[in-house]
Amino acid sequence: MDALNYFAMSWLSPDLLALTALGTFLGIYVGAIPGLSVTMAVSILISFTFSWDVNNALCLMVGVYMGGVYGGSRTAILLNIPGAPSAIATALDGYPLAKKGLAGEAIGLSTVMSVVGGFIGIFVLALAAPSIAEFAITFQPRDYMMLGILGIMLVGSLSGSSLAKGIFAGAFGLLIGTVGLDPMTADERFTFGIIELWDGINPVAVMIGMFGISEALHQLQHMNKAVIKQKISRIIPRLSDVKKYLPLSIRTSFIGVIVGALPGTGGDIAALMAYDHAKRTTKDPDVAFGEGAKEGLIAPESANNAAVGGAYIPMLTLGIPGDAVTAVFIGALFIHGLNPGPLLMVEQPHMFWFTVGNLTLANLFILVFGLTGIKLFSKIVECPKGILIPLIFLLSIVGAYAINNAITDIWWMLAFGVFGYFMRLYGFPVGPVILGVILSSLTDENWRRAILTERGSVIDLFAHMFTSPLSVVLLMTIVLILFTKTPLWTKMIKPKLFKI
Amino acid sequence: MSSHESIPETRKPGERLFGFLLIIGSVYLFWQSYKISGFSDLSSAGAFPMATAATMLLASCIVFVNTLKLPATQGMDFFSHCFPPIVAIIMALILIYAVVLESLGFILSSFIFLFISIQFLYRRSVLTTLAISLLSLIMVYIVFRLVFQVVLPEGIVPERDIIASITALWR
């Protein structure tokens, strides 16, 4: 009964309801406007909302997250520019549909199927998370340490073709996270005698720099991309279409939720896998894939929204973010005094049910905003970059200042922004940096706990790993990821195994 | 989110230097982390930073060696393709904006920043830019200062007095 009360909390309070609606509305536009990303928006929002009541802040951010994942599809369909990486697969068939004059129908269908996917994701979250959290209580410190490393490695290896660059980025993030007084021994780490550094570098400043400033600087190079306008007709999809494609939508939603729940994988990979699934399982599509097949639009759209629910599972039960957006989200939860992980579910179960209720509400708002206001939408999305980019800089600077009312945070943000610009330029992923900053204290503390339990013996630590099935699986996964990037695998074993 | 940059088959201008600087930076950070508690204990405060700095060093060496093997991209110049003047100018503008933010105050410094950067990037008439900057600033101010109650530097503009006199007019 308590669970139901907390579930309905954001539905019954006018303030929370309005904030969720506002968040979802903003999220749809943020996700849709090329140049604005959900990660960027949530990073900036944290700095503005950290003094708020936790429920109010969560409602706004959950809305932005949910709306943002959906919003990316709009520009993918209308302009062939995916507003977010999770909408890359959507553009493959969405844009050809728009070129045929079916933009409205494509938007309507993708909205309904996104909502279906969203509900399936939330349902699985509500069902699976409590038992996973119960299981997670039995995790040893070494398992947490390995989960942290695994998350960073997966994001590092999946977000670029070079594992070394991903690992560098992840390790750099972990190192940034250690700056300040050591929480266990109060030793100074990388403080250079500066008292201001005792508290460490604010993760929000790093996030805004890496995702706000560096991304906007990068976009300065692509200022003059021509925008092709599309005619939008009927938006509400036909019931026969919804019925016809519902089974595919449900199947791909489950792909989405599973992929989303894996640490290191998010909506983008879920969407591409779902697209591939649709392509393989659709025997006789009315239109060929890549030329405007509705199946090719529905599959990724269902999957990427279902992945949101999936991504919440490791985030809330283990405190492990799946990708950069969830890493930023975990940062937000920490700032609001919540400690994501198995104990959150035990000590504050209301937060879990509140989040589930809130996600459901945001998903409903997607349906409302997704099927309305399309004229206003096409006007806003065409906002010239010459106006948009200075505004992003302005918000980033104000956001960084607002964290502590300190100019120091602005300097950190600018430094990470410029460094992030060069990292992106030379193909280094910036997602693992944020993941590293967030996971640093978890990995550090658990490493030290693990080694203290074994009385400082690394050999004992490794030996005892083989006594627990979970530790073995985690260790093997880490070894496998490393192994599949070595020349031994890529040049010798893989060609023979897959007969390339 | 455009963190998914695909690695080119060729080497961009400045990539070797960047890789080399990463190695130097990693060595420096490793030395700094060694200074925390040396090789005293695996559970010491410096053990984890040392492990991460060592990982950075190893990874940056691999990246550097891989970069050396790649052929340079033809027809690409550092100052026109990697760090074009537009990026450098905007970076300088942001820096100046951050420096004067506290002394000039949010309203004045943001207005000047918006006006100059929009005029530079959007290239329309001065009046249009003026209107866009003013409108954007008003919207940002209303949303963040008045609705979100974010404290912003006041500087030389007597912001509180202005707000007080405006509220007095309504009474």
What percentage of amino acids of chain A are in beta strands? under 5%
Question: SSE order of chain A in H/E notation?
Answer: HHHHHHHHEEHHHHHHHHHHHHHH
Biggest β-sheet: strands ordered side by side in the sheet of chain A: 1-2
Using the alpha-carbon principal axes, give the shape of chain A.
globular
Span from first to last CA of chain B? 47 Å
User: What is the strand content of chain B?
Assistant: under 5%
**Can you count the helices of chain A?**
22
**Number of distinct helices of chain B:** 7
Question: If you average the pLDDT of chain B, what whole number results?
Answer: 87
Number of strands of chain A: 2
Q: Tell me which oligomeric state these chains represent.
A: heterodimer
Structural class of chain A: mainly alpha
Low-pLDDT residue spans of chain A: none
Radius of gyration of chain A over all CA atoms, rounded: 22 Å
Task: Supply the number of structural domains of chain A.
Answer: 2
Number of strands of chain B: 0
How many domain regions of chain B? 2
Q: Helicity of chain A, in percent? A: over 70%
Mean pLDDT of chain A: 85
Domain DUF1468 (chain B): 19-153
Pfam family, one (chain B): TctB
Protein name (chain B): DUF1468 domain-containing protein
Keywords (chain B): Membrane, Transmembrane, Transmembrane helix
Provide a descriptive summary of the structure in words.
Chain A is mainly alpha-helical and 500 residues long. Chain A is 75% helix and 1% strand. Chain A has two domains: 341 residues, no CATH class; 34 residues, no CATH class. Chain A is built from 22 helices and two strands. In chain A, a hairpin with a 6-residue loop joins strand 1 and strand 2. In chain A, helix 3 packs parallel to helix 13. Chain A is globular. The model of chain A has no long low-confidence stretch (mean pLDDT 85). The two termini of chain B are 47 Å apart. Chain B: This is DUF1468 domain-containing protein.
